[in-house]
Amino acid sequence: MFIKRDATAPTITYSGNAGTYGVADTVSITCMAGDNLSDVATSTCTPVSGDAYTFALGRNTFTASATDGAGNVGSSSVTFTVELAPDGLCELTRQFVRSSTAYDASRPGRHAAADALTANACAGLSKFISRLTPAKKALAISIYNHHVKALVATGWLTPPQAETLTRLADAL
User: How far apart are CA 170 and CA 172, in angstroms?
Assistant: First the structure.
């Protein structure tokens, strides 16, 4: 008579992690729980996915665990960083504007207007913000936030998008 004993914990495998994401990027990390002997009975393994700006700036860590049919528990974690740079904030601004209903593909003239407003909003941020004095940096961010409000008033951004952009700009 043979008795099979499973003393091996299940594995948790994360894949697709780029490690570092800009705020305009998309995070798409899969999670898989597996066990070769007793099969996975329960697992907290879920994908980590979404627009990078929806995660905390800086380091983000997610942990999952799994229990197999024999009661063994395994766990693992995945860590990535969301970075904020002026160019990334400007790219996110462009993405938001271009996804708006006001950015009508059948009316290219409106594209130029929206793109010009976005460029004006980003002009003070993208080139020099790292070299500015604190007072001038605050002024550049204030000007950017003013342009973001104008993009809401003209229908290019929604209020929640504007809130996201100004929150990020204030964190520069």
Answer: 6
pLDDT digits (tens, 9 = 90+) for 84-110: 999 999 999 999 999 988 877 666 677
Q: What is the DSSP letter of 36?
A: S
Q: Could you tell me if 80 and 60 are in contact, meaning their C-beta atoms sit under 8 angstroms apart?
A: yes
CA dihedral in degrees (126, 131, 137, 141; nearest 10)? 10
Q: Are strands 11-15 and 26-34 parallel, antiparallel or unpaired?
A: antiparallel
Contact status, residue 121 vs residue 152, Cβ threshold 8 Å: no
| Two tokens, residue 146 | 């003013």
Q: Is the pLDDT of residue 117 over 90?
A: no
Cβ(156)–Cβ(117) under 8 Å?
A: yes
Handedness of CA 19, 140, 131, 126 (dihedral sign): positive
Q: Which residues pair with 146 in a beta bridge?
A: none
Looking only at the bridges linking them, the beta strands covering 48-51 and 73-83 are unpaired
Residue 141, amino acid? I
Contact 28, 16 (CB under 8 A): yes
